[in-house]
Amino acid sequence: MAIDKVDLEIHEDKQLERVFLELSANETDMEAVEKDVENYRIKKTQALYESRRDLLKQIPNFWYVVLAQHEDFSEYLQTDDLRYIEYIKNIHVQWKINDSEGDNTRKFDITFEFSSSDKVKFADQIVTKQFQEINDPDTGKPRLISTPVSIEWPSSYDKINPLKIKRKGLISTKEDKKNYRQGMKSFFAWFSWTGMRPGKEFRSGEDLTRLIIDDIFPDSVKYYTDAMSADLEDADDDEEVSSSDELDLSEDEDDGAPKRPIEDDVEETSAKKLKSP
User: Fold this and answer.
1) Measuring CA to CA, which residue among 47, 96, 264, 80 is closest to residue 189?
2) Is the dihedral of CA 184, 186, 188, 191 positive or negative?
3) Which tens digit of pLDDT belongs to each residue from 142-169?
4) I want to staple 193 with a disulfide (CB 3.0 to 4.6 A). Which of 91, 202, 210, 266 is the partner?
5) Locations of Acidic residues compositional bias (predicted)?
6) Domain count along the chain
């Protein structure tokens, strides 16, 4: 007995529907496993990062060396910001374990510790900024959002400090607008970044955040040792150059005439090279 074409199509549709349901369940199980792996990683690494944190505090200017040598980090700073990098005593990322069923949101805090300085009138402070990763409803891709946090800006920034400009009233003059825009480009404006007001807050806030959590923080020891190794190599090169530059100004033992200056040898050698084919 031949199978009716309509019945065959219904059978195939039901089979395809069953496959998609099982595939959806498989994806759900996969997400649960990935969440368990992420929580396991956090539990294992967080204690190690805490131990490392205590050790790094014992190394003078550790974070200054790391940040000053990091080419990408400087892209998010204004020139005036560079003078305050040396007052960063510590940077720490604290990942949060997510035990909520069905919630795969990544959450973490970034803490900056600053030392005070009478020289540049900068306050001793510890600032912790909270973040979470959400799915963008427009693109369907993950993106970061953050809660603004208060930070005491250097007093030299009073003129461009966005918070101070707002406190004194509406931004009415051209100078106010210019100073406000300049202040929003400063690294210190990153602490008030939310990720919810594109074009009206610190530029590239998400890029800087991901640079910190994915690169600078986990690989900070590598960046520090690379910078120290480069300094040692430069010092060795300087010593070699210094030794080779010493001139023998003693008189010739045979005839008592002074030896020909080294510049003459260099000129003669250069001339020979130019004449060579």
Assistant:
1) 80
2) positive
3) 999 999 999 999 999 999 999 888 876 6
4) 202
5) 231-255
6) 2
